[in-house]
Amino acid sequence: MKPIRLTKEKKSKYGNKITEFDGMKFASKHEVKRFAELRLMERAGLIRKLKQQVPFELIVGIIKIGTYIADHVYEQKIYDCTTHNLWVPVVEDAKGVRTDVYKIKKKLMQAIYGIEIKEV
User: Fold this and answer.
1) Cross-strand bridge partners of residue 19
2) What is this structure's pTM?
3) Which of 70, 69, 68, 90 has its CA nearest to residue 78?
4) Which is it for the CA torsion 38, 39, 40, 45, positive or negative?
């Protein structure tokens, strides 16, 4: 008879815990909390077109370097004295640990798309 192996749940490298909320899975409790805040803001009309886990291809010339997956993408309402309402796109990352790979991808997003990632 073979011995029974008990498997432990693998711990995350950075201490985050995959969390389910409203039928969706999120990489951390921090990300869930931010999503809930954004959803309230969307219901209040302060933001619109809220999306999660949006991929951006990181291509330099003809070479694909990789893919950056934004935690949240939305449009935020700002007030302008000439137009009164202006919707500005926002790419957001619920960051706990800024890894070296993330830092490179953040710079590539700025260089390729002109997008400054908002870290929360």
Assistant:
1) 26
2) 0.79
3) 90
4) positive
